[in-house]
Amino acid sequence: MTKINRTLKLLLLSIIIMLLPTGCWGARETDQMAYILVMGIDKGQNNLVEVTFQIAKPQNIGGGEGGGGGQGANTEIVSVEAASLFGALQLANAFVSRELTFIHNKVVIVSEDIAREGMSKYINPLVRSREIRRTTFLMVSKGKARDFIEKNKPVLDRNPSRQFETLMQGNFITGIIPYGTIHEFYINIKSPGSEPFTNLVGVQKEGEPGSKKQGGDDKIMNEVAYLPGEIPRKGGNKIEVIGLAAFRSDKLAGFLNGAETRYHQMVTGRFRSAIFTFPDPQRDDRKNIIVMEIKKGSNPTVKVTLTGDKPLIEVNLVLEGEIVSIQSGINYEATDKIGELQSNIERLISGEVLKVIRKTQQEFKSDIFGFGEYTRQYFWVWKEWEKFDWLKRYPEAEVKVTTSLAIRRTGLMTKTVPTHSGWGE
């Protein structure tokens, strides 16, 4: 009986608590808010920074009545100079009729000038903010961030947030776009075993489309070796998202183009699939190419050895391939030739990956691959690992790269037959 009474008392108390009036003192109505979708950070002329806010117009962003066409009808772009990011936000509230909020912000774009000066003082407030998600995309713009935001005219997506979410999915189908967030950048700044990197963006250059200056095998292998503003194209949106911005500590150290970014993602295990073009191993004229879809077979194996005079980094990539095109007509699907094709592509990929790693060692002096994380096993405590100072030893490390490729599929053809020649002569 005592247990029943106690239960009834607890139930009665719970009902009373539920019926008590509650207050939502921090609640804000949606029609009182102005939602910042994209934020850009540039160097200011009269103050420390110029901050650009791209603000949604709620009545238009969903494509409702009065939406019009193009981005201009959907968002408003304003810029403010101030001593800090949130100081600029406060000043913007002086002329924006609604209270600005970051709760729907998806992208932070930082100019190249700001990135070269150092990112720590800007990352810290972003990470500390209660409104900005750590999953927010972080991008470095070649040129001013404001110019990038102003010239971004989405063609297929009305909402800029949705547009960038879709663009970032290109990471899974092309490999030329890394998936950089505020959280990942912050973690890599703090780690003794890795350096940060993030997405690289820019605006299409005026005038003639850009072009590569490589020749021979380099031109074939580096089919996507472009930085933002260099893609030879016409039409479409003026902005371009391709390549990677590499940092040494919190300062910008250099760029990887689209082709180099794919190899970086292979080593870090982020790579999923992409279309590659290779020179035909049995044709010296380089006019015939082999196109193949390369997919990740399994996660790469990375081993770092510290027992010798220099650190030794060993990388083994496991990939799968599907033949898309063989222009020469050679029957590489045959059992006596498919092995030759696999070996040739393995050698080419290993060589390109090694070039990218050496570029980060010699030019950037930055371990954006995170090889230093594999050295933890040699140290008992964190302070010993920090004292080892891997990031200073990384440039002198020896590197070995091996690739294992298995051509699993040949499309809808099991045999390539050369085209007949001489007919009609």
Automatic annotation (TrEMBL):
NCBIfam families: spore_ger_x_C. It is a lipid-anchor. InterPro entries: GerAC_N, Spore_GerAC-like, Spore_GerAC-like_C, Spore_GerAC_C_sf. Keywords: Germination, Lipoprotein, Membrane, Palmitate, Signal. It is found in: Membrane. Belongs to the GerABKC lipoprotein family. It comes from the Bacteria. Residues 27-201 form the Spore germination protein N-terminal domain. This is Ger(X)C family spore germination protein. Its main location: membrane. One of its GO terms (cellular component) is membrane. GO terms for biological process: spore germination. Pfam families: Spore_GerAC, Spore_GerAC_N. It comes from Thermanaerosceptrum fracticalcis. Residues 243-411 form the Spore germination GerAC-like C-terminal domain.
